[in-house]
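S1.2 Input.
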Amino acid sequence: MREKEKYYETEKAGIVFLAGSIAALLAAVVIALGILKNPLSLLPCIPIAALAAFLFSYQQRKLRAFCRDLERLSQIMVAAAENTGELPPIEYRQGQMGLAFTNLQKLTTVLQSTQAAALQERIYLKNTISDISHQLKTPLASMKLFIELLAGQEVPEKQRQQLLLEAGNQVERMEWLILALLKQARIEAGAVTFEKKECKMKLILNTAVAAVSYLTEPKGQRVKVELAAQEGSELLFRGDGPWLTEVLVNLLKNASDYSEEHSEILVRAEENALYVRISVTDYGKGIPQEAMAHIFDRFYRVDTSVNPNSVGIGLSLAKTIVEGMGGQISVRSREGEYTCFRVTFFK
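S1.3 Output.
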């Protein structure tokens, strides 16, 4: 349909131009003949000459408008190429020139979106590298100090064992940091494909609880697991079981760090017609209100005195995984009473 409109418009312009040319030629011939024979014969030529003048003027105006449009298109293209911010406004036009303006606007919009996305990626990469550098600086400096102490003088056996233990803790901290960041980067880059298959929720919860037993058992913490399935059925989760286990491990680590010794941590999974939800609740320090908005930020820690070896990336990684799987994660807390993280997958 659009091609037909282009064709008819081109034909119309050609006919107008041809008619004007013929009229001008006839007027010139008739005027010449009238001058030679009879001046009164010029009278019929006046309408023809007027028509020729009108058509010539019309074509001139069309040509000037076309030149202005070309200049306008050139300005828009220069603004887009120089990325000077907002483009000049593009008013509505009809015909082929209007189509050219519309397509140019689409092209420049796509280019600006691409440039904005590339800029955001550069900023993200710069901030990530800065964060990693900052996080690695402390454990590396600590390890350097431990090595100097061990190599520079005679160190009592008890102190030597303590220094080696602290050095091992710093190595584990760096290992966890690098692995967690690699996982998060792969997910954010779309390099991870989450599986969609039915998994037994009880097995996922028990696996996660067992994975953090090295933290909870020495502190005498009790992890209670509850399942609330629909009547007469086993609670199943359709998704990626290992990645969901990773999320729960991070939430349980956080719950253990911020809970007192001999306290209880509740892990509850429930299902209804709308969603499957897993919650991890501890009855420890809670989260201050001003910290709630930053709780999922990378490297953010509510209390740096809790678990000095923590790097503050577990909750950020959990959020990235959950959202990558199409779910939602939220937190509710009351300072000094409880903290509850909820992971929800809608059906």
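S1.4 Remarks. Residues 154 and 160 are 9 Å apart (CA to CA).
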